[in-house]
Every structure is written in structure tokens, then in C-alpha cells.
Amino acid sequence: LVPLFHMFGQMTSLLYPLCQGSTVTYLASPSSRVILDTLTHTPATHLVAVPEFLKTVMDRLEQQLASVPHVIRRLLRDRIRARISKTLHTIACGGAPLDPEVERAWRDLGFEVIQGYGLTETSPIIACNTPAEHRLGSVGKPLEGVQVKIAPDREVLVKGPNVMKGYFRDEQRTRAVFEAGWFKTDDAGRMDEDGFLYVYGRKKYMILGPGGENVFPEDLEAELNKIPGVRDSAVVGVEEGGRTVIHDVLLC
Fold it and tell me: In angstroms, rounded to a whole number, what is the distance separating the alpha carbons of residues 118 and 126?
């Protein structure tokens, strides 16, 4: 489901599975209907997907079960899961932030959802949850040998053998993304006391609020999109009277 021109797709849907002797099924169309149809007759055990697919399928499922009480849903869990796939047990998710509520919904159906984080420049994985060490909403702990620290401005910095040496024939750009040997991801995040990494979004999209607070549009948009009747939203900072005021635009 992740295109092969993307490093995430190359690693998770081509190089690693083939090294393990796995069979890989590629789809001509990435639509959710084609994916679900393929899962019904392909004995897939692992699925590599982006958050949008997981959200789309879960939204449709929620619409179908809108009139079914949650107590009954739990009793029907195995039947619902079998409708999606009788063999699938693990979903690897990356490429964009995964809504914790969507992750919880898939896990409630009995699927192991493994969210990771990285960039093409980091080969591409920096951190990843595992079945043994998992924390909802986080992107997991850094891989073995990979160092992660949070800069004072909350940018995620990375150092390790997975980090590129530089951009091809572009020394100026290379110098701009390294600081004392640390690669600057341009993503903002934090690490908890147990070493799990949480990523908020692109640092360049952060809005400095009127009270000096750091506002990450993706976080607010994810909450706004949960409001009944809201199809989509956008959070922006507008200059008013010499200060930045946070506004939201709703598509209903």
C-alpha cells in the first residue's frame, strides 16, 4: 500500500519481506475497497499501511455498527475481524501521525498495530513500537544503536548508523540539517520517562500562540475532526493587531 518510490515502502514491502522469504502481494489500486477485497482471498499475515487507510476503514465500520451497542460489539469482535481478514494479525503503520483513537479501535478488534517513525534520511526508521514494548499514541522507542534527543525548541534530533551521510552533491543543504553530528528531523516531539518517543508534527508548521504557547495544527485538527458533522478542518495562525491569533476553518 506504500509506494515503492518511498523508502518506507521499499524497506517494509520489498527488502525486508524478501530477505525473510515472505510472499508479498502488491495492489494495482490502493482504494480501501480493493484492499479489503484482496484481504478476503489473500492469506496475508502482515499489512503495511498509512494512517489514512486505517481511519477510512474504521470510519466505514463504525457507520455500519452505529446502531449496535458496544456490549454487543465486543461479542461480535471475532466475526468483525474475520470479515476484514481471517489471517491478518499485524499492521505496520507509518508515513504520517496515527490517531490514538483509531489505533485503539483496531487493537480492540484484536489486530497488533505497530506504529513507527522515521524519514528517508534515516533509512527510514528511527523508532518503533513492538508487541513487547508498546505505548498507545507513541511511535515507540528508538532502535538499537540509534540515539534520539529533544532540542530546546522540541525538535527531534537523531544520531546513528541509520542516518545518511548527506544529500547527493548538495553540501550546503547537508550542512543545514546537521548540528554537532546530530541530524535535525524538522519534527517536534518529546520523550517520556520510559524512553517512548511522541511526535507532534513538523516544526515548521508550529504556530506560536499569543501567550507564547506552541500550537501544533495536526493535534487540534485531529480533535476537531472528531466533532459530529465536521468532515475536515484546518488550524491556522492569523496576524491580528501585532499578535498571532489561532483560528480554525471547518468543512461541514
Answer: 5
